[in-house]
């Protein structure tokens, strides 16, 4: 269960048997070509895989360097790459004969995706979500509840994503007989990092094939944002064996020197630790207590990061960079205006970095940006980030009507 | 050696009591007072939990105590100083209970050295299964400290045996699924579980969780060697102060 | 320009030349196989066509009759079938060498789709939207503006969709040299009904092919909601030559007897008339003045309807039914819980009717429901329809923060 | 016959004035008063607009007048009664201006019959191009009413000719792109346009829109046969009442 020096499975004893079963079923599935076939079928009939690669002609002209392509995970059912992971795990849950799923969620997208999967598979579903996030992300909470899930606000700790993960583990420790924990990213104890990356590898497999079909060669660079790391692992995994530079972009928040960021692999503020069941770089203090993080993108402000990415960083196979909140807002704005595409704030980190590098490249080079999700779910955040007065007025008037 | 201490105590008592505190909760001074009270009330050994920000295996009561302690600014160094102080002052064995990141960041070897110097007897690290415990076992072994491991009702027999091979001091048997502080049905099922545990190891068995009164202790006599008092003591302390805890522990041994 | 007795081009003289040019370019495009190829390419690389057909196994079991399939137009870029029409018209605008597009919008989806297309093609863009709708649909207005469009609130008339159409025509009458009016549905003067239906026919073409590939036969019935009628025309057009029953579902609002509905083809309240440049069934009074309409779905409350559908009704080729607001809410709720799919309130009309008919059918029959769009854009409407107290509280708290 | 009336008036005046009202705006009584004032001020013919809920070719001023009239509850029947009344009372030709749906719903034949009985002379239906006008042309022809059609600067020459073939009374020449009530540059371009119109038809030419003062009228003399006063009169009425309209019209003819 190790990826270089990272990963492992630092589990309470009571969960060891559950993980043994999960690993067994996962390994069986992985060795069963029918499983992957079924998975692809499901994703092509329930979501719209393969998602397209869009050539961003206007952005390319604007920057005057490499040709810019966008992998459109935003077109997935529920609006992000999260669907890949949850539907894959759903198939495993069926194999295990369990009837209930639980999940953590920060921004809410993984929660919505899991609630969706649970509705589709007929599983009971409980979503743990930090109380702070429940308040911030009410639209997603609304949809989860309408999809039939129970959303439990987590009032412990810092009341955000990592606390929701802890709480989901506590549920699991109690209900592992009936319940599978659908971890949302390529983190956590083995086999989660590998398993989630495997499901997400559908992104990279497609992207590589699409480039070969349409361009007969591969892009020079691939950019992906990195929160937990699942979308990055997904798209990168199509290109590990190729001469393609892979760039993971973390949330530099208010700046890498500000302390208010969520950069674990491109800053000096993180160090190796063990928490939430696995070993990786964490944003923690010298005692090993986790620190608060900041990003404009709720999906990127996690304290840990995929142990596989930590390993790829150490090995030099993936380069890590940061994008600040303000660079991200600019990238969203530009991408909307130029291409009519609204990247999620998370995804926009990859765009922001790509926009820095594309102009330095030559016109016969190509780059790929993974648009992990769509931004129109973020309207409350984006409207706030853009400080739109008409939006505020609308909300105030809506509130007045509710008061009346 | 922790195991021999336990054996000798068991010659005098049918079942030992192990209590638990979170260092720094509600304050370092209060923690000291609680330890003193517990020792005076007759507990046989104690877990001192070094608070961690992500206590994944703990239930809501202990979780909150961890968070409050950290919010009060308690550091690992203060916790180790505290351990050193109580181990030097009170005549029972103390163990650290904490999550692996605390040891890992401090340095596992250095942590064990500190424990030895301070006179601690062992440690319980609930997120460190034997598979991940190589360095830890080596360091604990070198310093003659007891690495206490955990059995759970879901642990298969061959794994019980494997854990027994590396554990020392005693084995901490989780009575049921779930985090600390939940309800346990002391039923016949428990007998079967403990028999399985007993068959797998010659080490003494501690049983968590959920001891509420004297009759629970009575029930456990002859089944387990150590009854663990965790969350219940913390609840009493919160409701009735240190004295309530002392009375409760005395009551259990009446 | 007639479809049976309906259609025509009742144009102000000043627009006749513009329509002549449009018809010429459209006819050229229609006769040019490369054009359709380019269109399909665009839709497969910018949106995710072909959109899948999803088998709704849980709903099928729930109703115990025909097997239920869903055509997933909700997965399109911008979240609805509207994308098909706007991207197609965008290609025509390029052919015509025009540099500006205008559009009307009611619910805002067509406005967002047009603004998106304009950004992608580099056109200037103005969207006309009734003032009432601007207030109701602020999220969509926000996105249109962020995409670079100018949104003009129409303060005349009843300040809803039909008034926005009138205003768009007024703009066009003035700026036809540079400007194309991207009409949003299969209505308006010829060639719009035919042209929009042609672009939307991509839906039906795909659906027919997908059924033949996967099931080797066709569904017994196809259900589509009918506002202007473009999604219905789109999906129906794949099956006109087949022995497939086609059912258009209109907004029965508070009931067909209540007067508060938007049923033009399944109620006695509508009559044939000529307005907004074409002849069809309108909800009008005896003088020929248009009446107010009502539907829970902003995209269905239009006074007119595609003249092609009026003709298909007269010919008996399409059956028209109504679904009430409350049936629609129930259908949304059930579809979410059972399948993890959130139909737009518009699309849910088709679901509601299908749910009435499916149980009466045999298990070896199949039905297809066209999910024209996704419902998560409707959160303000759906949350209000479900009367969710937590949502209200969220909005009130958000408003308080804006006040502070 | 409308055309012969216009010809005979043109023998006396260099250019005729046609004004426009929306029936029922601001009220039916006021409409009557406006007609009286306009006739007394010397207009030569008048358009009576029957309000329609979707006046697609009208600009904001006339659009609002349509809406207000409808909001006041004005019906088509009231409009026809009004037309009947003024055509019977005042000695100039009146035309209806409205959108096709009004005729269509009323019945095109019945509408023409009504017009004939009431003594109206013709109609302008801006959303009814000749291609869609079969029934209308037939009905108007049978009742000897003038179907007035429209030329626009975008109309190609062969279409000008085709329109001339079916039109009667006069041709309404739209001076520029856009809806009613916008600004028109009276430039040389206009000369070319009107020359094209003149070449295509022997009917008199009315020119809309945007006449503002006497000098505009002067400019149009010899170019067009009828100057159309639409939105400007409505604006004056709204600002200064009926008297202001009367003064304006008299001023134009000074």
Automatic annotation (TrEMBL), chains B, D:
Naturally occurring in which organism (per UniProt): Desulfosarcina widdelii
MF GO annotations: tryptophan synthase activity
Isomerase keyword on record: no
Documented EC number(s): 4.2.1.20
Gene Ontology CC terms, in alphabetical order: cytosol
Catalytic residues (UniProt): 47, 58
Subunit structure: Tetramer of two alpha and two beta chains.
Pathway where this protein functions: Amino-acid biosynthesis; L-tryptophan biosynthesis; L-tryptophan from chorismate: step 5/5
Protein purpose: The alpha subunit is responsible for the aldol cleavage of indoleglycerol phosphate to indole and glyceraldehyde 3-phosphate.
Catalytic activities: (1S,2R)-1-C-(indol-3-yl)glycerol 3-phosphate + L-serine = D-glyceraldehyde 3-phosphate + L-tryptophan + H2O
First-tier enzyme category under EC: lyase
CDD domains found in the cross-reference section: Tryptophan_synthase_alpha (cd04724)
InterPro entries: Aldolase_TIM, RibuloseP-bd_barrel, Trp_synthase_alpha_AS, Trp_synthase_suA
Family according to the record: Belongs to the TrpA family.
Keywords from the named record: Amino-acid biosynthesis, Aromatic amino acid biosynthesis, Lyase, Tryptophan biosynthesis
Coiled-coil ranges from the UniProt annotation: none
PANTHER family: TRYPTOPHAN SYNTHASE ALPHA CHAIN, CHLOROPLASTIC (PTHR43406:SF1), TRYPTOPHAN SYNTHASE, ALPHA CHAIN (PTHR43406)
Identification of the protein by name: Tryptophan synthase alpha chain
Pfam families in alphabetical order: Trp_syntA
């Amino acid at each position: 269960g190790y990826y270089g020096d990272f990963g492992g499975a630092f589990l309470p004893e009571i969960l060891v048997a559950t993980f043994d079963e999960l690993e067994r079923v996962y390994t069986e599935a992985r060795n069963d070509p029918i499983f992957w076939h079924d998975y692809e079928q499901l994703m092509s009939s329930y979501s719209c895989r393969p998602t397209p690669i869009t050539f961003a002609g206007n952005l390319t002209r604007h920057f005057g360097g490499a040709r810019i392509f966008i992998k459109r995970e935003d077109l997935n059912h529920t609006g992000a790459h999260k669907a890949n992971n949850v539907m894959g795990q759903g198939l495993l849950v069926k194999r295990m004969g369990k009837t209930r799923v639980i999940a953590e969620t920060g921004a809410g997208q993984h929660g919505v995706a899991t609630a969706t999967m649970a509705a589709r598979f007929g599983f009971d579903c409980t979503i743990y979500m930090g109380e702070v996030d429940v308040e911030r992300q009410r639209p997603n909470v609304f949809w989860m509840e309408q999809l039939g899930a129970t959303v439990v606000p987590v009032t412990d700790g810092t009341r955000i994503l990592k606390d929701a993960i802890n709480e989901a583990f506590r549920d699991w420790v109690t209900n592992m007989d009936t319940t599978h924990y659908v971890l949302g990213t390529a983190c956590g104890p083995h086999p989660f990092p590998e398993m989630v990356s495997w499901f997400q590898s559908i992104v990279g497999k497609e992207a590589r094939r699409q480039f070969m079909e349409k361009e007969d060669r591969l892009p020079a660079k691939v950019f992906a944002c990195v929160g937990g790391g699942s979308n990055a692992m997904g798209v990168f995994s199509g290109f590990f064996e190729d001469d393609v530079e892979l760039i993971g972009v973390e949330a530099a928040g208010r700046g890498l020197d500000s302390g208010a960021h969520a950069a674990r692999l491109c800053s000096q503020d993180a160090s190796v630790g063990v928490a939430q069941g696995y070993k990786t770089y964490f944003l923690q203090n010298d005692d090993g207590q986790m620190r608060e993080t900041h990003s404009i993108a709720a999906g990127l402000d996690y304290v840990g990061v995929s142990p596989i990415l930590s390993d790829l960083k150490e090995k030099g196979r993936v380069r890590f960079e940061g994008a600040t909140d303000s660079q991200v807002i600019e990238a969203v704005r530009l991408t909307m205006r130029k291409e009519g595409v609204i990247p999620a704030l998370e995804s926009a980190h990859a765009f922001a970095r790509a926009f820095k590098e594309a102009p330095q490249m030559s016109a016969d080079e190509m780059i790929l940006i993974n648009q992990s999700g769509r931004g129109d779910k973020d309207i409350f955040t984006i409207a706030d980030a853009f400080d739109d007065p008409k939006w505020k007025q609308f909300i105030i008037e809506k509130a007045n009507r509710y008061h009346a | 050696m922790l195991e021999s201490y336990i054996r000798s105590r068991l010659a005098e008592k049918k079942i030992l009591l192990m209590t638990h505190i979170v260092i720094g909760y509600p304050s370092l001074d209060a923690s000291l007072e609680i330890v003193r009270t517990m020792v005076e009330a007759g507990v046989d050994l104690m877990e001192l939990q070094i608070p961690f920000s992500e206590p994944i295996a703990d239930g809501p009561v202990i979780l909150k105590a961890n968070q409050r302690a950290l919010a009060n600014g308690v550091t690992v160094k203060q916790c180790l100083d505290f351990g050193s102080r109580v181990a030097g002052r009170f005549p029972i064995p103390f163990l650290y209970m904490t999550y692996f990141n605390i040891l890992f960041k401090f340095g596992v070897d250095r942590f064990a050295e500190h424990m030895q110097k301070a006179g601690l007897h062992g440690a319980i690290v609930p997120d460190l299964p034997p598979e991940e415990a190589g360095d830890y076992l080596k360091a604990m072994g070198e310093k003659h400290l007891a690495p206490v491991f955990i059995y759970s009702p879901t642990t298969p027999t061959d794994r019980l045996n494997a854990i027994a091979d590396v554990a020392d001091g005693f084995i901490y048997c989780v009575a049921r699924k779930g985090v600390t502080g939940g309800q346990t049905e002391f039923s016949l099922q428990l007998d079967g579980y403990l028999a399985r545990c007993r068959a797998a190891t010659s080490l003494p068995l501690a049983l968590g969780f959920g001891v509420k009164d004297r009759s629970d202790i009575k029930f456990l006599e002859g089944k387990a060697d150590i009854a663990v008092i965790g969350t219940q003591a913390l609840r009493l302390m919160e409701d009735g102060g240190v004295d309530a805890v002392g009375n409760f522990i005395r009551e259990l041994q009446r």
